């Protein structure tokens, strides 16, 4: 039926003469078919949409939300230029705005103008010109085949694309592509066209030649080039960083450099210089670790100064993330095979993913080169459906193993000079390597395994370690483990259980079949489907209400049959945990349905200890056969060494690692946690761990449904961090702009020493045998001249009305370019709803994290591109966001960022504060304020204003601001006037 695309083509709207519609200054700019530009209200647009031809737009879902229209879905009803851009320029991120699209297509500012509706036909012309140029390239056959398939699915652009590609001339008389060309169905099977990785010998261990400070400076000069901005202190930072590359003298005692580099020092290039030089000289990789995706992407871009050639850069620099971030080709294949029975929108999404999959650099779905708005246009569930989010990877058993994006990155990292990762992955990899559970089968014994590390955003090491080394026995986690072991129960689903993944590895081997069957039977002690609905029931024998099917996009599930309710030991335990939490917390009534509640584990409510013992026995009955299965699988590698082929051997090795990581290590942690039920903490002693109960509603669950769990955190999470890094690491550079908390800007040796000691404690450097080398480099910026800072004294920031009025006033005074920071999502959303219409009317588009259906990177790209936009965000926007220039000229913080007053913080302030819990809290708040202020000035020419909307701000917190910054307390009106005057003076000075 391929010929139908051309029969249907006449029913598609003509894009060449279509009207165009964009949001513009609180209203809408409409280019009519006659070439007239009109400015209409939302009501006028809604009325006109019913009668006008299909318009050109940009970002259909966002426009529909602005117009208060229902989500359009796919096939989209409007001619969205973003969809065409995704087809013409796959793997090219772009800000999803008229100006962003124009810049991405090479237009200059003077040509873009006011970015009204008349810009869109010009963008269409550029896109179609670019598409036509690809018609004779290497991807021409793919373009033709995918266009035909898109036409079958009803994609609104397929007729225009087919005409541009001249597909009429390529068709056979039957209206089909010739058999000599790639066919539409085959074009979706991208794994056939992806390059294979080839196994190579492990590289030899790196040498240990040091790097001198002089050499680091020379490398930095070479990287910067003649026209680069000279930053005072950057060369000094490069010199100091060489200390992390000194040869290690004692096993378990790495060389550590703790370097605080003020904002603007240029620390990224400062450590890339010695790191790249060491890697080249010693033939080994340096791992650069960050906490936020913003900085990870920024570092990857900075390395292009060192390796401008694309091929060389790809060889020398590798970006590593967790497996769940990448396109899974096996899931993609299953989706393609079932697409014919799914809605057309899923087929369109798969085709767009196929187009991207052949162009992507590394297959990263989240934060890579797939545009962050892709999920908003084509369905977020479709992205999740083709990622390995459930840990079901079958490694060597997968038919696409040698094409796998993750396996490619693992092998490229072996040969790279710089590997850019994140704190969580680095800690997990180090821990897995110690336990023999690495992603890489050879990594445990790999002589070239990473030994030199750079931890950027070092102030977040404790947070990352807290997440990496904590344990959670909750309904959601236990149910996920059951799903991983048993697969889908009573559902049509892609979920592959353990028996299916092991498949023929155990069939015919009784020694393997017996422990596998025992484990699967014991897994029924974990929460059964529908557990959340039963959680709040008082009696275990009450029938559960029917549960709607889970929506996971590409793989929608059918409703499951009601499950018989038995005395499931995990569910009984969870129910008692919930009972204790509700009894011990202040909130009651309906509030607990929507808010997280916490209580201490001890003292226990009646029956909780017995329920915990029963659950511990049930988990032991599960973990022991799994352990036996792993041992016997390993034994088979030795017993059948002469007959096992390499594929089967690889599958066995991968499955044993997966069993230990996904199941055994987790079950061991849960059993250890349950043993804490019998050991209440001793008074006046310092515990190693903190145990508590939490009830909360998770984002994965439907409104009103709850999860409950028992949690265990290290009191000091930097202890396990130091424990796992001490052996592999021979040198570490830990750096940040906010390592130390200086309680005063007055120079004082005692205070300075205390600040360094606190920094060592926060980063874990105090747990290593030798003390770190300390270094501090001041920011080169003249903050007294470049900035102003205010505390607003006449608003009540506990009132959402006052808070919204303050943000609206400040954003209008600055003329946009404002970043609003919040400590609570609920307040962010409340302010957004109240101020967005007014700002839009004044030509200041407002975007918000947790409101707009785009990832943080895309929101920052929009903010950076649109000079008069405003952005609201939480802590992810407070740290690591780099927006130089006039696009960011105001940072407004809703209140002092005090630490969250939960049980974990309570215990840490008691035991880790040195007897001064008040100062412990203030140190955290000051460091967060320093991070927030650091977003404001990113280069010498920047000017900006920082406003704190908390009249109760203690004066002792003001040392968080750089030396020279005078913090003034004024009313809102006076603050707005001074803000506007300062920015106006700055603009005049720049013009002169």
UniProtKB/TrEMBL annotation:
Region annotated Disordered, chain positions: 530-554
Family annotation (Gene3D superfamilies): P-loop containing nucleotide triphosphate hydrolases (3.40.50.300)
PROSITE patterns: HELICASE_ATP_BIND_2
Keyword tags: ATP-binding, Helicase, Hydrolase, Nucleotide-binding
A GO term for molecular function: nucleic acid binding
Pfam families per record: Helicase_C_2 (PF13307)
Domain Helicase ATP-binding: 220-505
GO biological process per UniProt: nucleobase-containing compound metabolic process
Source species, domain of life: Bacteria
Family: Belongs to the helicase family. DinG subfamily.
The name this protein goes by in its record: ATP-dependent helicase DinG
